[in-house]
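Trying the structure run again after the queue cleared.
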Amino acid sequence: MTLLKRFPIRRIDFIVGKESVTQSHHLIKVIADMAIFLEFTDENSLNPDAAVEMMEHIAAELQLLKNDEKIRVIDSFAEIAKAYRGDESDFVKALPDTLGLR
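Done. Tokens:
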């Protein structure tokens, strides 16, 4: 399965207060897509240790955000999760906790 089929591009625009967060929302969706790839790709295709190391790196970088930025990221993950189904949706909903943002 190609990445484009696995991670279809969906335009999701939403407003936080009066500020459009479309651009950052798309960047956060990229993080969600990468996390899904790292979590759900079988170990024959991706070294599990490398996947864990990358998830830890993503978490460390996101934990450096200011609190208001973390709140936006958390809200974005909740919104983005609606674009997925099943285990992938549940995984994206749990990303704020998985990545240590709460």
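The mean pLDDT is 86. Worth checking whether this holds up in the mutant runs.
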